[in-house]
Design goal:
The protein is of the alpha+beta class. It has helices spanning 46-54, 94-105, 126-143, 165-171, 191-206, 210-221, 234-242, 252-264, 285-300, 355-358, 362-374, 419-425, 435-445, and strands spanning 10-11, 17-24, 28-29, 59-63, 68-72, 75-81, 84-89, 148-156, 162-163, 179-187, 280-284, 305-308, 336-340, 343-351, 379-386, 394-398, 410-418. 32% of the residues lie in helices and 22% in strands.
């Protein structure tokens, strides 16, 4: 639970008075903790009520007897809903968070001063990403924007390239001192740079930090005669990324950040609901954590390997004589399958929720139980994010509901991934000297041994590495 402290009302982009409610991920607040939520209702505000409903899987906003109650999940950022601005900050400080973001998404190690400040208060988590984008673009401008040969066709007094004979014939021969030519010229005004400039323009609209907005506008202006795109879509980023090569690969990091900003910006959920689009930015830390764990294990496992999102076939099946609709049985898809040699060993899942502090939801336990029962080792692992130094392995056994069963129970291991320690291991200043520690810790994270067959509990935090 959280004790609210009064924060002066902010001004939202439309000028209306807005109450700022600050929370961390996986936190709950209501009128008992913050008196400003007393008496607030969306009963007469249809857009706000509908937005609260479609946001239910990202944050739970409910009207109680005394006022609004808000419960956050793995999403961080900011959203305006009715009279409220809800700012959800990650618990991880900005500097290690930026380092982990760079590692997970393959960004370059360019440190910005904004990484020493809180990444969400009061404007939003997106400001950290926008500052990282600004640093990337500054580096690109310093090196010089990527240019490519652009085909041009125009009449020239000094002919270049290929003279367009067919065009001359259409004109009836030479009628003036210029000849129609088709030639190529290296220019910065092409799709890649247009996407970068449009990404900066979009980022400037997302931030309400005046200094950061001015910085981004200044960078966009430095693109000179590069054409401005009125609107940028994910497909534009896809096309720009598909055109990268060894000559312009330095642009990959900036494109990755633009993609993240576009994916998380705005909260209109389909075209019919465009009128409900609100100022907001919600970043899914759960997806980020899965990508972070995936890259760390891929990079550092030596004796074993993982395969991402392996579908488990045959766990469920409809009885042939009792499937009149010819339905296809679902196939569970854990985040990772652990492989040694060519043999499957077991399954792992990742969750951005501090199980040590907040407990394990029952539906996650049911999911992991299926993974354990389907594994050759009858063990599954939940890797969860934590900042608690004392967090250690926990184990839940899945026992046969018969007293006479002689089978060993299947087991679910709840294993902490200490984010601050992981950020230390990924410090770019010590990336080579700590390679052995990273490999040892990666191997410890995937140990598929239950407590009843292991005399001593393995540690998986700083002490183990």
């Amino acid at each position: 639970m959280r004790t609210g402290s009064w924060t002066p009302p902010m001004q939202s982009p439309d000028g209306a008075g807005t109450l700022l409610i600050e929370l961390a991920e996986w936190e709950r607040v209501g009128p008992a903790e913050d008196e400003r939520l007393k008496g607030i209702s969306f009963a007469d505000n249809l857009p706000a009520r509908h937005l609260a409903e479609v946001l239910r899987d990202r944050m739970d906003i409910r009207e109680g007897y005394r006022g609004l109650e808000i419960a956050t999940t793995s999403f961080v950022g900011r959203v305006d809903i009715g009279p409220l601005r809800i700012a959800i900050r990650p618990k991880l400080p900005a500097m290690p968070l930026a380092r982990l973001l760079r590692y997970a998404y393959g960004l370059r190690d360019i440190t910005t001063i904004e990484e020493t400040h809180a990444p969400t208060t009061p404007h939003g988590f997106q400001d950290l990403l926008i500052a990282m984008l600004a640093a990337e673009v500054e580096e690109l401008l310093y090196r010089g924007l990527a240019r490519r040969y652009v085909p041009l066709a125009e009449p020239l007094e000094s002919p270049r390239g290929r003279i367009l004979v067919a065009e001359l014939a259409r004109q009836g021969g030479i009628t003036d001192a210029r000849l129609p030519c088709r030639y190529f010229e290296r220019r910065a005004n092409w799709h890649l740079n247009q996407v970068l400039r449009a990404g900066l323009d979009s980022a400037a609209r997302m931030t309400e930090d005046r200094d950061l907005r001015r910085r981004v506008h200044r960078l966009a202006g430095a693109f000179g005669d590069v054409e401005r795109k009125e609107k940028i879509e994910i497909t534009d980023v896809d096309r720009a990324e598909s055109g990268l090569n060894r000559m312009n690969a330095a642009n990959a990091s900036a494109l990755s950040i633009i993609r993240l900003l576009l994916e998380m910006h705005g909260l209109a959920f389909d075209q019919a609901e465009e009128r409900l689009r609100t100022h907001g930015f919600l970043f899914d830390m759960n997806r980020f954590f899965q990508r972070l764990v995936s890259r760390f294990l891929h990079d550092n496992l030596i004796s074993q390997r993982i395969i991402d999102e392996w579908p488990i076939q045959g766990v469920f099946s409809y009885a042939p004589e009792a499937n009149p609709r010819r339905r296809v049985a679902p196939s569970p898809r854990p985040d990772f399958a652990l492989i040694r040699g060519n043999a499957l060993r077991g399954f792992l899942d990742s969750k951005y929720r501090d199980i040590w502090e907040h407990g394990l939801p029952a539906n996650w336990l049911y999911q992991l139980s299926i993974y354990a029962l389907a594994a050759p080792t009858r063990v599954s692992i939940l890797l969860y994010a934590t900042m608690a130094d004392r967090a250690r392995d926990e184990q839940v056994d899945i026992r046969e509901p018969f007293l006479w069963s002689t089978k060993d129970p299947a087991s679910v291991i709840l294993r902490p991934v200490h984010l601050t320690w992981l950020a230390e291991l990924l410090d770019p200043d010590h990336i080579h000297s700590r390679a052995l520690e990273r490999r040892r810790w990666a191997e410890n994270l995937v140990v598929l041994q239950a407590r009843h067959s292991l005399r001593e509990t393995q540690g998986h935090g700083p002490q183990a590495a």
